[in-house]
Amino acid sequence: MTSLSPFVKERSIAHRGASAHAPENTLAAIREAKKRGAKWVEIDVKLTRDGHPVVIHDDRVDRTTNGRGLVAGLTLAEIRAMDVGSWFAASFVGEKVPTFEELIETVLELDLGLQVELKPTPGDDVETAEVACSVLEKYWPKDRGRLFLTSFSVRAIRHAAKLMPDTPRAFAVVVPPRDPRALLAEVDCQILHCTSELIDDDALARLKESGIEFAVATINDRAEASRLLSLGAQTILTDHADIGL
């Protein structure tokens, strides 16, 4: 679990694609990330009511589409009928919530690395891992690498470990753990992802001392991103794919 040879060799990952420049978690955001120099992108996967994996962050569609309701309460056809670009800018009107399959196809076409966040609606943690892993097993080339799974859900990430034991996994936290190595061992992960809110100097020192590979999200200021990298983080997640680290 040491960070002597980090899995993610790049210093930044485009968070939900180039989400400062295009509607998050869309194919447009992935293409924009590539255009702006990203080597890796991060996206979120949730299940629809009829069990299809779609790329969207929130439990509800309200914030990022022109629809309303829980993702888990809507069918794929209902979600695909929604517009996911008009809230961001008129130039993205007509953009759709991607299926996970479409997302993978685009990432492979653009030759990007992919961080897949399993984002279950509370209650379908295991099912989200099962469906997402099944799709990856089918569509992600076996010898390609440049893929890892992550989740805030213990149940989802531990189930993913059983299904895809050879694919690296990251556990996501808000509170930096007192014993990072013990936590990663408990959840069967190799990488720790921390949100930025509670990352102070003591937490950074503790994480660096542990020797684990860790990343911080979501950092949009270049100076702060550089500071975190200098203090031990291997990777920064950012909405600005062209942050230039």
UniProtKB/TrEMBL annotation:
Pfam families named in the record: GDPD
Residue ranges crossing the lipid bilayer per the database entry: none
InterPro entries reported for this sequence: GP_PDE_dom, PLC-like_Pdiesterase_TIM-brl
Entries under SUPFAM superfamilies matching the protein: PLC-like phosphodiesterases (SSF51695)
GO molecular function, one term: phosphoric diester hydrolase activity
GO terms (BP aspect): lipid metabolic process
Domain GP-PDE intervals: 10-245
Gene3D superfamilies (UniProt xref): Phosphatidylinositol (PI) phosphodiesterase (3.20.20.190)
Designated name of the protein: Glycerophosphoryl diester phosphodiesterase
Organism of derivation: Ciceribacter lividus
